[in-house]
Amino acid sequence: NAGVMQNPRHLVRRRGQEARLRCSPMKGHSHVYWYRQLPEEGLKFMVYLQKENIIDESGMPKERFSAEFPKEGPSILRIQQVVRGDSAAYFCASSPAGTALGYTFGSGTRLTVV
Amino acid sequence: DAKTTQPTSMDCAEGRAANLPCNHSTISGNEYVYWYRQIHSQGPQYIIHGLKNNETNEMASLIITEDRKSSTLILPHATLRDTAVYYCIVRGSGNTGKLIFGQGTTLQVKP
Hints:
Chain A is mainly β and 114 residues long. Chain A has no helices and eleven strands. Chain B is mainly β and 111 residues long. The interface between A and B is medium-sized, with 26 and 24 residues.
């Protein structure tokens, strides 16, 4: 019973490139959440998705960031035209329903922009 | 969701019990108390949760005061691997959506 799978674990991008982070939720989980953790800071909520729907994107930066959770396949967090300030750890969590019960995190993707 | 207050940091000697407090004075009747921890650079890990009764699992115990305005997470025999940031989060059972993480308590277990 695999947990929440995130890939890649480490991603290096040059300024101006695109970064695509993938998250496969736990089996049976249909709710996905993305968080960002800047160096030496706490976890900040970014976006909450169900299959084919964005439920809450109140934490997403207004530009360059987008997220999707298609009917088939993993959830994708996409960052266009990356800048050095996007360097952070990006964590994905999933839950079976939209409540806190069963909320499980992945190991994260560490994005470094050079 | 009710706001929580935790000390910024705590130390504990290896092998001793670590008691991490959390205040949630505005908690309402249907809100649970959840504890997570984040060991350096890893994804947050669920520890335990409770509503009003004390709870125990293989990782920890959760003691909730009778008025539910505060709680204590107890790691009975702390090890160096328990060094982490511990987050106390209050969440309604019917609430949907994100968990909001505060600053948490940085627990340093020392040899």
